[in-house]
Write a structure and sequence with these properties.
It comes from Linum tenue. This is TIR domain-containing protein. The protein is mainly alpha-helical. The chain is built from three helices and two strands, in the order H-E-H-H-E. The longest helix is centred in the last third of the chain and has 14 residues.
Length: 71
């Protein structure tokens, strides 16, 4: 998302086994992202995880591909 903001690069989201609508308002508070983000909060700095949360919120507003099964 930084490259999109700073350099105008295109972003093509691929939502693998999640919906772009899942927990968009606050991915860190509940749902499919909460457990993973909680684990990352224990291993990484607050600023780094906050950047990821911001990116999740930002990317949810971009059209992309939803992949539920690769077979």
């Amino acid at each position: 998302m930084n490259c999109r903001k700073e350099n105008g690069h295109r972003v093509f989201p691929v939502y693998y086994k999640v919906s772009p609508d899942d927990d968009v308002a606050d991915p860190a508070s509940s749902g499919v992202y909460k457990a993973d983000l909680d684990r990352h909060k224990r291993r990484h700095s607050y600023d780094r995880v906050a950047t990821w949360i911001h990116a999740l919120r930002s990317i949810s507003h971009i059209s992309g591909w939803v992949v539920t099964d690769h077979t």
